[in-house]
Automatic annotation (TrEMBL), chains A, B:
HAMAP family: RNase_J_bact. It comes from Peribacillus huizhouensis. GO terms for molecular function: hydrolase activity. Homodimer, may be a subunit of the RNA degradosome. Its cofactor is Zn(2+). Substrate binds at H366, V367, S368, G369, H370. This is Ribonuclease J. Residues 20-214 form the Metallo-beta-lactamase domain. The keyword Nuclease applies. Gene3D superfamilies: 3.10.20.580, Metallo-hydrolase/oxidoreductase, Ribonuclease Z/Hydroxyacylglutathione hydrolase-like.
């Protein structure tokens, strides 16, 4: 790799061609600043994997150059990888008061809080890391205290938007710093790095105010208990629930661990305003008059073990849903969760609840936190960048975002649609993308990170589809006579009742195979096992059309 | 069970609280008529299951009473279970010319064609099964030749709508028989059984004509090759592709087995009109001028091994997508398939294709085949039923459908929201739901049907998440001394490189456990295995946070 002297480099270690595990890096000479460290939830093909985090190889190899991890906001896809990151790299973390509150919850769980340096900043802070000078601006999003970042470098200014929308009537005064953004643009932006989540959606994203209005209407009409499920971190929405509850003289109860934790952080740190004595414990709810209480609960993504999932199946200890109660789903299903969410809606209707869901403009209880096409164009227009790097999206979103940039005057050849690991190098204010560094998915499975490879996943897949057959056989060392077995044990294959005949037949096949091997004087274990796998596999597939894993175990005595 | 003499009974064996495996049954005295026999695709929790079909217990117990299987149309959720049904019950099948064509494809594959009686009917046919007289009416849907059914019984008339929408400008003259429906309603309908798929969607479903218009516009603009992916069975849409191709002087190529098979059936049977010589073979496509060809392909649901999936990753042998080609996704993702479809769209954009997707009103290339709320209200209004049974939907859809019925005058207490297996009995024109018969999911796995039970699935789940540890140990019969082993073999657990230390430690734990068992003089195998599982399980969970299946195998010699 060439020397980094006076070179400005920008790359992603996660967040490109995916929604999740956001991690972006800016390096000038020998100073590295990291932006965000997110996690991503695995899809169902990654059997048994708990979380995916970015590949940290490059950072580990350059750890003496890392000056800071700056976190734009507290969503999982921006902070979920932090505990695993800190176990390898002890880097100071800079973020806002609320975001650090959420990070602290994570660090406590992983017992990392004592050894980590956390620095509280706000949109007026200025930081210096070598020749990189950093300032900030406020953006609105579906969580409080979100930052956009300006990196002032000798090559020029680089702006990272964080996740944003332009909500001019947000809850809780979380207005975007439009004047400041205009100034930044006027000063000159060499590179704009901007999020692309909703680049396919036309128009301007609707305001959180719409949710507030619909929430008030629904609360006015409701006669029984009201349940509202949303992301705990969407404190602005929680505030609107609180406000609607105050107006209709209802107390508030919180169900679900993350709801209790995050709301506590928000209250402690001053991001949520509610009158004293408003919160009641879960076990008091069923003793109260139903029209006197609203229950905020986790589980808006259809998770069967979260509060709403358990309420829907009547499995929540302290609280029940009765006919006439109202349930509001104030969140949209994340792609992949649609079926789980629908299942819960079905259960709620079966319980006789009045269920309000969907994001229509007449009753919708959810708006996206990510700007639509007109929001993205406004950001591009304000910043007037020379170069543009769309981030935080699948390829089709980056592609549409590039078209938006072109439509407001960014030269087509000045937009870089990169991959994770592709490095955009800037020297003498000219940007090029010619090299790349290691990037990819690191799997977290249990307490170990990165040790689940392709073979383990391939085995899990085979086991998951047709189970396994373990064939145990003891042979005498010299004459290769069968002393014990063969015994075939199956798991995940088929009913024992139905498979008995097959298992007997398999044992016969194994005996025959061993006899043939003896006749051919083949004694290598690998060859013997291979032959057994083949002959048994053929029999099994012919008779059951299944391909279980076949594991021959030969013991010599 | 009480006698069936003069009793009219209606029930579902599938299709309620689900989308899939539709099967409805009408019984009068000792005559049973079955409507549809669908399959359902399993979700990812049913590891290794290929297909789900209805539980046929009741029908097998009453097989001498079954007179007919009438099939309303040829979609998988209405015909997918037929081969498995026929293997147990040899019942004559009545359906339209096109639907029987699709059923024949299935029966050929399962070698059932010779022994099955297939009877071609149309909307003018009249059938008699005991005291049940059957007539039909045409409905429009996203496949040709769809039927609604009228059962004239001594108790009154029962109408089953099949799947339908009111499309007044359909392709291929598949107009609904509105006049006939009005007559049926005028004659009097005791029970209406109507599908509920889109009962949550407001308004009237858009016409297939919209797709035709957008298709023509896109074909006019396209410069390179055009790829269109849709359900093969949506012959009306295929016809619109053919028409747009003729207008723009393009030939047609078909990719994917089901596209070739189903289009052949449609042409042979007269449901698709195209000029001679229009179809070109796949291997000729890349030799043709790109603006002279359109390729119809399977894979609109994101299936990675279907034609579009392989084209998107550059793995289709004969045909490639080049920059400037147009790809039209003329289908919506079925819930659960969104992520797979998105992945393919990303790949197509990366190849430089102009991708047209989504179902907006300006460029949308898909309309639903199922009626929206106004369609459903029109059917209810035409039929004016005394009793109403909403079918073909999840609970929330049935619930909304009941509200629609109420809104047009069906008494609330006269709507039966049933479950699969719930029987609605009608005697002296009074309907009651008090009893039920066996109903549920039967799993097809490989060639066997119904033998995959809860234990097998539970084992597959455990194996899929954390793999397994097989611990083999040979003991002497008398002294219980360890002769060989313990040896621990892992699959799907963790990298061998990382697990070596763990496996050694596990062997030590097993030795220690055997020693303790000997000291306590415990010789029962079950107890020994249980102890080994427990001690090893504790160690593994503490050190890896995983819970692999632990399978101790003890051999006595």
């Amino acid at each position: 790799m060439r020397t980094h002297e006076n070179l400005l480099s920008i790359f992603a270690l996660g967040g490109i061609n995916e929604i999740g595990k956001n991690m972006y890096v800016l390096q000038y000479s020998d100073d590295i600043v990291i932006i965000d460290c997110g996690g991503k939830f695995p899809d169902e093909s990654l059997l048994g994997i708990d979380l995916i985090i970015p590949d940290l190889t490059y950072l580990e190899e350059n750890k003496e150059k890392i000056r800071a991890l700056i976190v734009t906001h507290g969503h999982e896809d921006h902070i979920g990888g932090i505990p695993y990151f800190l176990k390898k790299l002890n880097v100071p973390i800079y973020s806002t008061h609320f975001t650090l509150g959420l990070i602290e919850l994570k660090l406590e769980e992983h017992r990392l809080i004592r050894d980590t340096k956390l620095v509280t900043i706000d949109s007026e802070s200025k930081l210096n890391f070598g020749k990189i000078h950093v300032s900030f601006f406020k953006v609105s999003h579906s969580i409080p205290d979100c930052l956009g970042i300006v990196f002032h470098t000798p090559e020029g200014n680089v702006v990272h938007t964080g996740d944003f929308k332009f909500d001019l009537t947000p809850a809780n005064h979380q207005s975007p710093d439009i004047h400041k953004m205009a100034e930044i643009g006027k000063e000159g932006v060499l590179v704009l790095i901007s999020e692309s989540t909703n680049a396919e959606r036309t128009g301007l994203s609707p305001s959180e105010q719409m949710v507030g209005n619909h929430m008030n209407e629904a609360f006015m009409k409701a006669e029984g208990k009201i349940f509202v499920s949303t992301f705990a971190s969407n404190i602005n929405r929680v505030q609107q629930v609180v406000d609607a509850a105050i107006k209709t003289k209802r107390k508030l109860s919180l169900l679900g661990r993350s709801m209790v934790n995050v709301v506590s952080v928000a209250i402690e740190r001053g991001y949520l305003t509610l009158p004293e004595g408003m919160i009641v414990e879960a076990h008091e709810v069923d003793k109260m008059s139903p029209e006197k209480v609203v229950i905020l609960c986790t589980g808006s993504q259809g998770e069967p073990m979260a509060a709403l999932g358990r309420l829907a199946t009547g499995n929540y200890r302290d609280v029940s849903i009765y006919p006439g109660d109202t349930v509001i789903l104030a969140a949209s299903p994340i792609p992949g969760n649609e079926k789980d969410v629908s299942r819960i809606i079905d259960h709620l209707f079966e319980l006789g609840a009045n269920v309000i869901y969907g994001s229509g403009s007449t009753t919708g209880m959810h708006v996206s936190g990510h700007g639509y096409q007109e929001d993205l164009k406004l950001m591009l227009t304000l910043m007037k960048p020379t170069y543009f790097i769309p981030i935080h999206g699948e390829y089709r979103m980056l592609y549409h975002h590039r078209m938006l940039a072109e439509s407001v005057g960014v030269k087509k050849e000045n937009t870089f649609i990169i991959k994770n690991g592709d490095v955009v190098d800037i020297e003498n204010s000219i940007a090029n993308q010619t090299r790349n560094i290691p990037a990819g998915d690191t799997y977290v499975d249990g307490i170990s990170v990165g040790d689940v490879g392709a073979i383990v996943l391939r085995d899990r897949k085979q086991l998951s589809e047709d189970g396994m057959l373990v064939i145990v056989l003891t042979l005498s060392k010299l004459e290769r006579k069968i002393i014990s077995g063969p015994d075939t044990i199956s798991r995940g294959f088929m009913y024992v009742r139905d498979s008995d005949d097959h298992l007997r037949e398999i044992n016969t096949i194994v005996k025959k195979t061993v006899k043939e091997l003896n006749e051919e004087n083949i004694r290598q274990w690998n060859v013997m096992k291979q032959k057994i796998r083949k002959s048994v596999g053929q029999y099994v597939f012919t008779h059951t059309k299944r391909k279980p894993m076949i594991l021959p175990i030969i013991i010599e005595i």
